[in-house]
């Protein structure tokens, strides 16, 4: 009865929750290649998801009350805004050039994060420093190659350069996941914290770039990429800080941390569903 009462007493919140669910489920269906038929020049899934997102926008535009319930209205508007701003390619696709620009915009953060990793060994105990250095030894070469490929793709968005970038982002992702698992075995608490914190920044940027590369890759290419992903995100995820990842994403895009948290969770979900 409480559930029914809540639906009756908070119809707008219930409607928003239902619409957010429709948008989320639509994303999953689209990622799995399920279209439920065609609708105009698109698919039934994209049509329903787009309508749900539009209705969320209308809910978010409702004027706030001057009553104590206005806090609920504000929260509803915030969630609607989050749903509308989620990176859902089936609602509004991005061009290869736009994605390439976004990838390149992440490269300074990647280089900075790798530089931090390089200097972190000095903060660890003499026993732990060599373990950490060996675990992260490939970061410099792999990240430099990815940065060069991203800039080359932006200058000339060809299929050949994209294929190189698809392979390289998986190489770096695998190095990061392996480094996380090795660093998690460091016994000294302070050393372990320093190690995982340094790798966290690299992991966040790599995950963001992987999501962007996925968005402009075919299903066949994504399947090939995931086939080379031996160490899965789920294995490294327990040792990563999603709150810190959200802060990095929020700072990069100049957006609220709450929104970045949803985006990070969505990107992780899409990557895991794709087999990474």
Describe the model:
With 276 residues, the protein is mainly alpha-helical. It contains 13 helices and two strands, in the order H-H-E-E-H-H-H-H-H-H-H-H-H-H-H. It has helices at residues 2-9, 11-31, 44-60, 70-85, 96-120, 128-135, 139-155, 159-183, 189-215, 219-227, 233-236, 242-253, 257-273; strands at residues 38-39, 42-43. The two termini are 42 Å apart.
Mean pLDDT: 79
Strand content: under 5%
Distance between the termini: 42 Å
Unreliable spans: 60-93
Structural class, judged by helices and strands?
mainly alpha
How many separate helices?
Answer: 13
How many domains is the backbone divided into?
2
Global Rg: 21 Å
The biggest beta sheet is recorded as: 2 strands, antiparallel
Offer a quick outline of the entry.
With 276 residues, the chain is an all-alpha fold. It is built from 13 helices and two strands, in the order ααββααααααααααα.
List key phrases describing it.
two-stranded antiparallel ribbon; globular; single chain; 75% helix; 276 residues; 13 helices
Give the topology, please.
Blueprint (H helix, E strand, L loop, with lengths): L1 H8 L1 H21 L6 E2 L2 E2 H17 L9 H16 L10 H25 L7 H8 L3 H17 L3 H25 L5 H27 L3 H9 L5 H4 L5 H12 L3 H17 L3
Antiparallel strand pairs: 1-2
């Amino acid at each position: 009865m409480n559930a029914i009462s809540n639906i009756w007493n908070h119809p707008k919140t219930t409607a928003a929750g239902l619409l957010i669910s429709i948008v989320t489920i639509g994303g999953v269906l689209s990622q799995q290649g399920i279209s439920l038929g065609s609708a105009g020049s698109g698919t039934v899934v994209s049509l329903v998801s787009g309508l749900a997102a539009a209705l969320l926008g209308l809910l978010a535009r409702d004027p706030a009350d001057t009553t104590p319930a206005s806090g609920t209205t504000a929260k509803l508007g915030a969630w609607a805004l989050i749903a509308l701003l989620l990176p859902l390619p089936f609602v509004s696709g991005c061009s290869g050039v736009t994605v390439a620009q976004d990838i390149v915009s992440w490269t300074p953060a990647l280089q900075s994060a790798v530089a931090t990793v390089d200097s972190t060994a000095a903060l660890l105990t003499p026993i732990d420093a060599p373990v950490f250095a060996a675990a992260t030894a490939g970061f410099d070469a792999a990240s430099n190659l990815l940065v060069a490929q991203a800039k080359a793709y932006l200058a000339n968005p060809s299929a050949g350069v994209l294929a190189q970038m698809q392979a390289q982002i998986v190489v770096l992702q695998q190095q990061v996941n392996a480094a996380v698992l090795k660093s998690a075995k460091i016994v000294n608490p302070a050393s372990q914290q320093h190690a995982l914190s340094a790798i966290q920044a690299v992991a966040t940027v790599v995950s963001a770039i992987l999501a962007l590369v996925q968005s402009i890759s075919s299903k066949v290419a994504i399947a090939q990429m995931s086939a080379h992903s031996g160490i899965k995100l789920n294995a490294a995820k327990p040792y990563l800080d999603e709150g810190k990842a959200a802060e990095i994403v929020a700072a990069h895009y100049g957006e609220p941390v709450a929104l970045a948290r949803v985006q990070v969770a969505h990107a992780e979900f899409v990557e895991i569903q794709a087999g990474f």
